[in-house]
Amino acid sequence: MNELLIQNNQQNTTAPLTYVERHLVKKNLRERFFPTTIDKWLKVNANLQNSIYKEVYNYISKLSLKTPIRSFDSIDSKFLSLFTTLSHTNNITVDLAGIPPVVVEDVFSLLKKTAANGGAVIVYDRYDEFKDDCTLYLEAKYLKSSFAD
């Protein structure tokens, strides 16, 4: 876990920064016959005292409590991981790659709301459509290939 320096009213504090990882369910014999459902996943991995994890139902299509996680595509898994992580902490770093452009705007507004409520969010994205909405915008450029010639 990385430490993030947060400047808040002339006070510098550090806070743990959690990367939103895509969680995979292990493939084994038990999982084949008794698949992990979203209900089981959230009971084990989410902080049930924080109600933000329930917002995952707004983002994943055709979702019910008994939906097996192994039937999710990569986008649904990313949403499940995002809301599970947000239930534990509001200091996160997230990669928006692979999220459809139609949904990215909603996710970014959720992340802005998280940051406005005292959190810290670092977003990795290939495009600059949210450049004006960021408190700090950094752009990385590719300089030279070490594999050329």
From TrEMBL:
Protein name: Uncharacterized protein
